From TrEMBL:
This is Chromosome partitioning protein. The lineage of its organism: Bacteria, Pseudomonadati, Pseudomonadota, Alphaproteobacteria, Rhodobacterales. It holds the Pfam family AAA_31. It comes from Salipiger marinus. InterPro entries: AAA_dom, DNA_Partitioning_ATPase, P-loop_NTPase. Residues 1-172 form the AAA domain. Gene3D superfamilies: P-loop containing nucleotide triphosphate hydrolases.
Amino acid sequence: MKIVASYSNKGGVGKTASSVNLAHGLAQSGLRVLLCDLDPQGASGFYFRVKPSKKLTDERFFTDVKRFTDSIRGSDYENLDILPSNLTFRDFDVFLSRMKNSRSRLHKALKSVASDYDIVLLDCPPNLSTLSENVFASADAILVPVIPTTLSERSFEQLLEFFAETKLSKKKILGFFSMVQGTKKLHAETIARMRQDYPKRLLDIAVPFSTDVEKMGVHRAPVATFAASSPAARSYDALRHELQQRL
Ligand SMILES: Nc1ncnc2c1ncn2[C@@H]1O[C@H](COP(=O)(O)OP(=O)(O)O)[C@@H](O)[C@H]1O
Ligand SMILES: [Mg+2]
């Protein structure tokens, strides 16, 4: 079982959009996929029409295997299950602070479903917390959507610095450009500079800005289900390919 996180310290960069579309694409390709919504806002669960989990409201998320597995829901799609979040997921750091080995708890919880899934996707909240450290420790790959603007570039740098300081392997970090607008000079310049600065840490694929992605909220479904041949759907498919090659 591989664990892939969609992570950024910044909000609104495309973590959920990429999690949802990748989860769907990977499941369509025949892999058994679990999408864990770790963000208390529950956007991933919303897109897949899955209700918030009621049982996972305390630290037993990390310790009670039965509670964890009982909270996993099926989706409308074959091979794709969802672990929906709820508002108490905002307290993960409080739960973790009470536990020993507080940085390896998520990995332990996920190991309990290792024989049921080929890939687990983690849709992460936008912060740098003990939960994030659990994500960094457990993930085989960390996808980081980067909008090619100054602040996103800065938060990508900060993430790499954090990895260096805490002696984590940077090899896990796979950035990709998100919401790219070809007409914007700043986008083109930022992409060119970052590709030079971080040649190994950035995937080739770039996800374009597209209203089809915004329409996911109306359809409550992955892009490929209602706009299969759109540039957005094609780019998420290419992202899936590149990710699978890297794994
Ligand atoms: N490629 C894209 N093109 C246009 N809008 C996008 C794209 N990716 C995401 N969005 C929109 O931007 C907002 C934030 O995206 P989301 O995936 O929820 O970000 P995050 O999970 O990082 O907070 C949402 O309204 C979403 O519909
Ligand atoms: Mg999100």
